[in-house]
Amino acid sequence: MHPHEALVREFYAAFARRDAEAMARCYHDEVFFSDPAFPKLHGEEARDMWRMLLSRATDLEIVLEEASADSEGGRARWTAHYTFSKTGRKVVNRIEALFAFRQGKIVRHYDRFSFWRWSAQALGPLGQFLGWFAPVKWMVRRQAARGLEHFRDRRGA
Q1: What distance in Å separates the CA atoms of residue 27 and residue 35, rounded to the nearest whole number?
Q2: What pLDDT is recorded for position 157?
């Protein structure tokens, strides 16, 4: 197994056991992370996003469906099962991840998933009917950014 694939698998094993610090150690100091809810996080912001999400998780289950990586990059397909804390609704989110590496660490991490499918589950009727509508995505992003900022302020980041 290529060392980068082992790193990706280590990242998701840490995620599955809710070990945010082990996840953070997989990231390069200059990591860039982006997904539909948390676009454009750099360095410690990305690490803190995972710390925040795991600190809130009550029934999170992470399943790594597949992972591969080599010297050029990596990819993973994984599923998150959890209750969305804002609404109490159950979510099954299927995610495709892409990775780039530097010095044996993850330096770029992009997660892709259907925002409409996620919002239909997490937000209920609002997400079902308006999840494709850009202002709903902007609202979710604003709330996510505020949550991360509040978490980071409390940590003294």
Answers
A1: 16
A2: 64
- pTM of the shown model: 0.90
What number is the average pLDDT over the span 65-86? 95
| % of residues, the chain, pLDDT over 90 | 73
Q: Which burial class, exposed, middle or buried, applies to 124 when counting CB atoms under 10 A from its CB (0-12, 13-18, 19+)? A: middle
- Please give the structure tokens belonging to residue 57: 């998780």
Question: Which residue pairs from 16-19 have beta carbons closer than 8 angstroms and sit at least 24 positions apart in sequence?
Answer: 16/61, 16/62, 16/63, 16/64, 18/54, 18/57, 18/60, 19/54
pLDDT higher than threshold 70 for residue 116:
yes
Look up tokens 């709330």; give the residue. 143
pLDDT higher than 90, residue 47: yes
